[in-house]
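Hi P.,

Sorry for the delay on this. The queue was packed all week, but I finally got your sequence through. Input first:
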Amino acid sequence: MTITLLTIGKTDSSALQNLIENYTARLKHYVRFEMVVIPDIKKTKNISENQQKEKEGEVLLKQLQPADFFVLFDEKGKQFTSVGFADLLQKHMNSGLKNLVFAIGGPYGFSAAVQKRANAKISLSKMTFSHQMVRLFVVEQLYRGFTILRNEPYHHE
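Then the structure:
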């Protein structure tokens, strides 16, 4: 299985980027993983938030194949414990799924078209986090999930 993380815009903080790269390198020991950074939409001063979401959504959807299982990180999604998230990863691997694609939206979230295409939604918390910080949380939780599945000593209950 390949896991892809689609994100909108580059990470501005070098400290965050270093941590993301660290967990990405660790994660690659367990699964084929890639992060695809979709460039920020240019000239957003004269368009509405909804128009920006639509434009980001068009680019995001072009990254998908019909057979991809597409999961949004969205505050209205289902919440998991780390062990529950690991179980979800195992379920997808056991199903023979080839591509598991996660997406983190831009600052205004996802367009209606992206929401419609999604197979599932996951919430990291009832709180709202910056879309840049969520990247770190996601790659860390993916790494944690695989260490849980391998009974490695990273996660403590």
